[in-house]
């Protein structure tokens, strides 16, 4: 299939002013402040420690929920019960393509250890007090799907 270059056909040109000033804010030059903030958030070291003071390791009472379209997710922390739970549930979590929220972890090194426990599962360090309140949960590890909260 040959491609031939053709000239641009201008249908109508009413003049006007350049839109460039509107676009410059979409990708501004890096500032000193943005360079300092690169280390903040879930991808940088500035995201640790992660603490969810409303969530602790413990028994979860399973229940039915109605959250159509909710991507399966699970909550774990840096503790022995989360390690065992991940070991027992890893295959199921992979089949569900569940994303893990690590709700209590002290450092990037400990987060890396939890990633080793999880194998190929996607994990994100994330304080989850708001989620805990909205779902009425106080303990983890747990799995949340569109229809259930379960341990």
Q: Report the oligomer.
A: single chain
| Portion of residues within helices | 25-40%
- Give the rounded overall mean pLDDT: 84
Sheet with the most strands? 6 strands, mixed
> Could you give the order of the helices and strands?
HHEEEHEHEHEEE
Q: What portion of the residues fall into strands of 2 or more residues?
A: 15-25%
Record field, number of beta strands: 8
Task: Please supply descriptive tags for the structure shown above.
151 residues; alpha/beta; 6-stranded mixed sheet; two-stranded parallel ribbon; 8 strands; 30% helix; 18% strand
Describe this protein's structure.
The chain is α/β, with parallel strands linked by helices and 151 residues long. Strands 2-8-7-3-4-5 form a 6-stranded mixed beta sheet, covered by helices on one side. It has a two-stranded parallel sheet with strand order 1-6. Residues 33-41 have low confidence and may be disordered. The chain has helices spanning 20-23, 32-37, 80-96, 108-118, 129-135; strands at residues 56-57, 63-64, 73-77, 99-104, 122-125, 139-140, 142-144, 148-150. Helices cover 30% and strands 18% of the residues. The longest helix has 17 residues, at 80-96.
């Amino acid at each position: 299939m040959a491609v031939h270059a053709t000239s641009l056909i201008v249908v109508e040109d009413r003049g006007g002013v350049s839109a460039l000033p509107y676009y410059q804010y979409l990708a501004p030059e890096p500032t000193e402040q943005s360079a300092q903030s690169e280390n903040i958030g879930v991808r940088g070291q500035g995201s640790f420690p992660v603490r969810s003071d409303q969530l602790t390791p413990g028994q979860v009472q399973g229940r039915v929920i109605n959250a159509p379209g909710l991507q399966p997710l699970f909550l774990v922390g840096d503790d022995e019960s989360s390690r065992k739970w991940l070991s027992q549930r890893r295959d199921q979590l992979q089949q569900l393509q569940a994303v893990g929220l690590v709700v209590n972890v002290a450092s990037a090194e400990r987060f890396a250890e939890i990633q080793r426990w999880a194998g190929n599962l996607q994990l994100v360090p994330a304080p989850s007090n708001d989620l805990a309140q909205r779902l009425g949960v106080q303990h983890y590890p747990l799995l949340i799907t569109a229809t259930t909260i379960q341990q």
